[in-house]
Each structure stands twice: as structure tokens, then as C-alpha cells.
Amino acid sequence: MKYTEITNLGELKKAGYQAKSIKEEIRNNLVSSLSNGATNYDGVLGFETTVLPDIERALLSRHNILLLGLRGQAKTRIARLTTKLLDEYIPIIEGSELNEDPLNPITESSKELIKELGDTTPVKWLHRELRYVEKLATPDVSIADLIGDVDPIKAATLKLAYSDPNVIHYGLIPRAHRSIFVLNELPDLQARIQVSLFNILQEGDIQIRGFKLRLPLDILFIFTANPEDYTNRGSIITPLKDRIESQILTHYPKTIEIAKKITQQEIRTSEKVRKQIEIPELIKDLLEMIVFEARDSEFVDENSGVSARLSISAMENLYSNIERRLLKTKEKKGVARISDFWGIIPSITGKVELVYEGEQEGPHNVALHLMSGAIAKLFLEHFEHPDQTVKRDNKDPYATLRAWFAAGNEIDLINEDHQKDYIKILDSVPGLGKLIDKMKIKPEDRYLYMEFLLHGLTEFEVLSKEHVREGLVFKDPLANMFNTLREE
User: Fold this and answer.
1) Could you give the CA distance from residue 289 to residue 255 in angstroms, rounded to a whole number?
2) Do the Cβ atoms of 66 and 226 come closer than 8 Å?
3) Whether 387 contacts 460, CB under 8 Å
4) At what angle do helices 477-487 and 399-406 cross, to 10 degrees?
5) What is the pLDDT of residues 457-470, one digit of tens each?
6) In the prediction, which pLDDT does 485 show?
7) Which has the closest alpha carbon to 374: 432, 314, 321, 332?
8) What is the pLDDT of residues 194-204, one digit of tens each?
9) Are strands 471-475 and 179-184 parallel, antiparallel or unpaired?
10) Residue 479 CB: number of other CB atoms within 10 A?
């Protein structure tokens, strides 16, 4: 007989079922998976040699865990994936509010039920997906929410005195008995509420309105928090922090390659749109470099962090910007352009927390600044620096371009241009194609690199770039200055 076919306490005893604590259960399953070379946190990228080994060590040690890190560092995802280390099913007393083990009941009502029914006590099987409880800590969370309170309606309905333990309405934590309980943003919890967690973590008893209840709750606690120096609303009180056995620091992706994998994994763009639109590697690199630039920017609060959600929502916006162009030009296929990045500005402005200097600059200008910095850095990975080349070799590879724009020529790259018009405009610039033809790139990326070269040269003031409603205008900076002087 399978365990899940057991329907009462007598059958459970006869089958030889052995009860174990949730931490022991997770430890046993983790030992088995590590021995077999299995991965326990699929989809959590970039933590393979840093965070995940710490998580596994903590679980092997049967520790409660505090995940400490800035926003968008997969803390909640790690907590949710830990449920995979639980047994698929566990037995509970049918009707029990606290998922009680038939072999180890903890409430008086369940003990009385087993005393009355004996081996005929009904047993139900609980799946591991239902053994996960998550709560976002906010300043308005009360002890009643987490621990419980006396329920006057229950007392009146059952005609019980307030001194009767059966009038208690249990909170989230007792109801997470034999489960994983996740409390997100722990510092936001008021200090007096944090104090109520002391005994649960250490001694396993709780107090509700004068009731002294010895409930040996069996819970794996996983707390998440931003670093204490960032939380303006509060902090984790020291005695509580002392009771959480393992504190694990998370971090952002350390390389562009890992960041790209995370973005591609998380975007919600439909498969149909992905097949219709090509996003070259250069575009993916540039998008992630904008995020890396934001994390180092003097305009962005480094203590707040820049979530991986920025690159995810920016990539989704990039796809949508190209999709919108295709709908207008009636094209069936599309390729991303550098100029498409001006469609992701709303994804940047809503995801960065600015310091005073950034507020003075304005969110829109900060977004443009981040894009400029990313373009400049990525440009130097593919092309020679305009000034250093002249100084070193006394040769200017961009001389033809300089001369053509200095003669008063300019080009307009309109956002909604058909691909044929886009190609025609770039081909009209003398010497631009020859510079790209020297590079070892995919033939289909030729025009993307031609445009990228123009954008890069504006960052080193070889050219100037103006934003107009429909797109961008590339000019010679000095010619533009002389025209302004003539007008004056």
C-alpha cells in the first residue's frame, strides 16, 4: 500500500511511517540530491559558487535563514524553490487547523480527537506545494496576524468561555506548522512584533492574550531583508538576528553573460513575437551594460540597488517597440536597432532610486546619461578610441566620416522607418560601411554596427546627436555650432 492511500491512524502505524521534523526532512532530501548530483534551485543563475552553497550548508545544519540583499536578487525565488526539498506528501490529522502530525499532535483538540477515535482517526495527505506560507512584513502587521488572537465570534458560536483554548484563532505562523514560513522585508516589521518571534524561534512556545501555550511548532523560517544601512523604515533588532542561525548575503550578477541569461529566462514576451523579432548579441550586451552603469552611477542611490527587473522590463519594452514599428511598416520580420533603446526609457525611470543630484538632473536625463555611458564603454570593446588612435599612429580611421559631416551633411534615423529606408540612410554615409567590413561580425549585423558606430562617435564628440520627436539626427558638432552663430 502506498502511503498516500492510507486513510486512518491505524493504517499509518501499521505501514511503519516514521515522523520527522521539517528541517530533518529537508536535510535528508538535500543529502540525497547532492549525492546524486541533482540541482535544487533551477533558474537561480549566478549564485552557483556563492549563495547556493551557503544555502545548502545552512539547510544541512538545520538552520533558520536570513537572506540579506538588495532588491531583485532572487531572495524570494530561493525561498519558494526550497519547497522542492520537502517530501512530496505528509500525513496530517484531517480537519486539523495546524497540519498536525497524526503521530505527534500538538493542540488539545487534536489530542482529544485521537483519544476518542484511536486508530480510526482520519488521516489526510498534504502536498509539499501547500506547505509554503509567505508574508510581506509591513508596519501594520499585528501580533494577531502572525501569532493569533481570541476570537469572540467563535466563543459565542460554540458557547465557550474566553478562558477556553478552543476560542483561539491561530495566526499565520502556527498555521505554518510543518511548513516553510517566509517573512519578506523583515526590517519593516515593528520592533514589538519582532519580539513576539523570540520564543517561537528558540523555545517553540507562544502566548496569545494571556494563554500560555506550549506549542512545539515545527517550522523552517526564511527571512528576507535589504541591508540594514538602507532600510529607512526600521532594522532587525539584535536579539532576533541572534536567533536566526544563518545570515546569507545575495548579490547582483557579476558578469554580462549571466545577466543576459537571467533576462532571457525571465522575460514574458510571447514566443510568436520572439520568432518575429531578432535581438542581436550587441543589443543584449548594451541593455545589460545600461543596468551595470546604473549600479555605478553617481545619480543612483547605491544603497537602494538596481533590480534585475530593470533589464527584464527593458527587454520586454524593446521587443514591444520593434513590434510596434513592424505593425506600422507592415513588415513581417524585424531586427533591433540602437535607436530602439529610446523606447525603454520608461523601464529605466521607474526602476532607479535617485540621489539628490539625480533628482536635480531629472529621471529622463539620468536615463539618457546611463545609455550614453553604456554606449561609450561598449564602443571601446569593438572600435578604436577616436582620439588615442590619432595620437598613437597619427592616423584617423574616422577621417572620412569627420570630413563628410564637417561639410554640413547630416542623417536622420527615424524610429518608424522601414528597414529598407534604414539601410538606405546608413549606406548614404561615405566610409561608414568600410569601417564595419573590416570587423569579424555576422553579415546580418552589418547595419546594426554601422548605426552603433555613429552613436559611439557622438559619445566622444566626433559627431553630435540630437533627439527629435520622430527619432535622431546625427551632425558635425562644429558645423552645428557655426550654423547657430550665423543665425545669431
Assistant:
1) 10
2) no
3) yes
4) 10
5) 999 999 999 888 77
6) 47
7) 314
8) 988 887 887 76
9) unpaired
10) 16
Q: Which three cell numbers stand for residue 418?
A: 522601414
Q: How many residues does the chain have?
A: 488
pLDDT at position 282 is 97
Give the position of cell 520537502.
86
pLDDT at position 209 = 64
Which amino acid is it at 124? Answer: K
Q: Which residue has the cell 487547523?
A: 97
Sheet holding 471-475, edge to edge: 411-414, 471-475, 464-467
Answer yes or no: are the C-beta atoms of 471 and 425 closer than 8 Å. no
CB hemisphere CA count around 85 (13 angstroms): 32
Q: Please name the residues in contact with 467: beta carbons below 8 A apart, sequence gap of 6 or more.
A: 342
* Residue carrying C-alpha cell 529606408: 421
Grid coordinates of 460: 566622444
Strand partners, 170: 148
CB-based contacts of 130, cutoff 8 Å, min separation 6: none
Give the distance between the most distant pair of CA atoms in the chain. Answer: 101
Determine the Cα–Cα distance for residues 98 and 168; give it in Å rounded to an integer: 12
CA atoms within 13 A on the CB side of 3: 14
| pLDDT, mean over the chain | 89
**pLDDT at 230 exceeding the cut of 50:** no
Q: HSE on the CB side for 134, CA within 13 Å?
A: 16
For residue 234, is it left (φ>0), alpha (ψ between -120 and 50) or beta?
A: left
Map residue 148 onto helix, strand or coil. Answer: strand
The residues, any chain, with a CB within 8 Å of residue 164's CB and separated by 6 or more, are: 155
Architecture of the domain made up of 3-249: 3-Layer(aba) Sandwich (3.40)
Q: Give pLDDT tens digits for 358-408.
A: 999 999 999 999 999 999 999 999 999 988 766 666 778 899 999 999 988
- d(Cα 443, Cα 446) in Å, to the nearest integer? 5
The phi, psi pair for 40, rounded to 5°, reads -105, -15
Distances (CA, A) of 34 to 17, 77, 478: 24, 20, 65
> Is the predicted pLDDT of residue 28 greater than 70, yes or no?
yes
Q: Angle at Cα 283 formed by Cα 301 and Cα 409, nearest 5°?
A: 100
pLDDT of 216 over the 90 cut: no
- Give me the half-sphere count of Cα atoms (radius 13 Å) on the Cβ side of residue 64: 23
**Strand ranges for 349-440 from DSSP E:** 411-414
Is the pTM higher than 0.70? yes
**Per-residue confidence band for 229, with pLDDT thresholds at 50, 70 and 90:** very low
Q: Cα–Cα distance between 282 and 378 in angstroms, integer?
A: 9
**Residue with the three cell numbers 535528508:** 28
